[in-house]
Amino acid sequence: MTGGDGSSSKVASRPAASTGSRERSGPVSPPEPTLRHLRRLSGPFGLFEHALGAEPRPECGYCTDDNGRALALACRVPADPYAEELAHQSLRFVEGAHLGAGRFRLRLGAHGRWTTEPPSDDAAGRALLGLGAATAEAPWEAVRERAGALFVQAAAFRSSWPRATAYAALGAAEVALSEHADRRSRRVARRLLAGAAKVLPLPAGAPSEEGFGPLDAGQAPGKRSWRWPEPRLTYANALLPAGLLAAGEALGRDDLVAGSLDLLCWLVDEEGVEGRFSFAPVGGRGPGGPKPAWDQQPIEAGAMAHACARAFSLSGENRWRASLEAALWWWLGRNDNGALIWDPATGGGYDGLHPGGVNTNQGAESTIAFVGAMALAQAQVFSASRRLETEAVAAPT
Length: 397
Description:
Number of helices: 12
Largest sheet: 3 strands, antiparallel
CATH class of the largest domain: Mainly Alpha
Number of domains: 2
Strand content: 5-15%
């Protein structure tokens, strides 16, 4: 199989339209999560991967990654009018992509033929994320049963790529912690998690004496110790501590929980500046790399939001709630150029943040990240009365 670690996230193949930073007045609150733009991106075989502006690009086809993530999202916003349809559509795609033993095809062409690209570890991990969420959470019996049956087959997946493993671990943790999953499903989920715990990295070096500081670390670039377990931040970085935290929680391993929280707090500190997140760009960022750097992608904010939400849920510590809110505000204008990174007209998420504003393409990955984050906002911790112009996101204490 091919892996995905060390590469950038997906970038649309046509030049994007852009818009500059926007001046706003009045209160800004998190929008209601909606799947309507994903419905617009849906074709006869699944969710189209790319868009030009808000319009889908059928010629670019479909990918397993997006349909796996869409399956998980549909199960987390079941009240949306399109949720059940999206869940069935995405599950059919994932079922058709499975080659057996946790191996998944990567891409389907616009006319419904699978491409010759080799199976992808990242696609497998994201498929297992969706299958695990559907097995544990889907309110539709047919979806839950079909997803559970495929999860048991696909949970044989193992990978040396940490991000692919982290996605699979997040799905497996859903099953292992679910009261609704059957005994066999929980058993294979725990087996997958035990394997993931051997792949997912712990932070390098010893914790700093300061511990978890504010989003602005107050240190000059290059002065902080580099505790990330890779030479550079690459893509979906918060996914690594999120997967490790999920494995630790599901397996009852305090050492993994402690290590993942340590790694996550380092990442929050590294990517924070003046009360906001300044995420690693498409090309990654190494020790002492400049901030801001471009282009920044929504997959970073989405991974950070979900990681901090899990940390807050597990620990109850307000420092994680504050960091979660900072990740959510990234879409709503508290970012490096003050731009909205979503389209109020469509409910879709923009594809990226660059020096001149935003990439106004609204592809599947970006929209799934945005809608998933706003679902967290609605479900857990966001105060809709906060005003973007007058109140800074609280720093972790």
